[in-house]
Amino acid sequence: MSTTEHLSSTGGQDGGRHPRRLRLLVVCVGNHIRSPIAAAVLAAQGGDDVVVRSAGLRYRHVGKGPHSNAVRAAAEHGYDIEDHIAVKVNFRLLEWADTILAMDHTVLDELRATADEHTTPKLRLFLDGEDVHDPWEDAYTAFQNCVAVIERGAARHLP
Predict the structure, then answer these.
(1) How far is CA 142 from CA 13, 19, 31, 69, 138, in A?
(2) Cα separation of 19 and 22, whole Å?
(3) What is the number of other CB atoms lying within 10 angstroms of the CB of residue 82?
(4) Stretch 90-116: mean pLDDT, rounded?
(5) Is residue 124 flagged as an active site residue?
(6) Which of 59, 76, 103, 147 could lock 28 by a disulfide, CB 3.0 to 4.6 Å apart?
(7) Among 122, 147, 125, 158, which residue's Cα sits nearest to residue 28?
(8) How far, in Å, CA of 88 to CA of 80, rounded?
(9) Which residues contact 149 (CB under 8 A, 6 or more apart)?
(10) Helices of type H across the chain
């Protein structure tokens, strides 16, 4: 999907038209590890062609920052997620997105259960047929691996 296929008025003085950026929403369970990392990776790899947001299915981490190991592992790969604040997914975010990326099958199934006929076609797994492992209670190396897996899987979602 190319962002240049969708045009919207800028409302600027020149009255010109500019390509509409692809809107990606990444969803995991808590918006505490995987989805903030994926959002940072997609934003970095997609540049000016994308706008990326992330959210979680649960309230547990809402209003809080990311897991410290996620911050550290992301930083080692050149991504700054330190200022991320977790939010819960809602219908407004689902409507906003052009594509909704679930980090695993369980998240995808739960999103399907809440989506309507307009948002359901936007749903897909971040990885093709695979889950991005949640390193929540794992050793630090699992967080590093999570970032690497997300980096490898990001390009398929970008224009």
Answers:
(1) 50, 38, 17, 9, 6
(2) 9
(3) 14
(4) 97
(5) no
(6) 103
(7) 125
(8) 21
(9) 127, 132, 133
(10) 34-46, 68-76, 91-96, 105-114, 140-154
Residue 7 pairs in a beta bridge with 19
The tokens describing 154, both together, are 């990001």
- Residues in contact with 63: Cβ distance below 8 Å, sequence separation at least 6, in sequence order: 85, 86
Active-site residue, from 21, 23, 28, 146: 28
CA distance 20 to 49: 8
Q: What is the pLDDT of residue 4?
A: 25
Task: For residue 116, indicate whether it is catalytic.
Answer: no
Q: Tell me, what's the pLDDT at 19?
A: 75
Determine which one of 21, 23, 53, 134 is catalytic: 134
Catalytic residue among 34, 53, 104, 146: 34
Strand partners, 19: 7
Look up 131 and say whether it is catalytic. no
Express each pLDDT in 21-61 by its tens digit: 999 999 999 999 999 999 999 999 999 999 999 999 999 99
- Phi, psi torsion values for 6, nearest 5 degrees: -115, 120
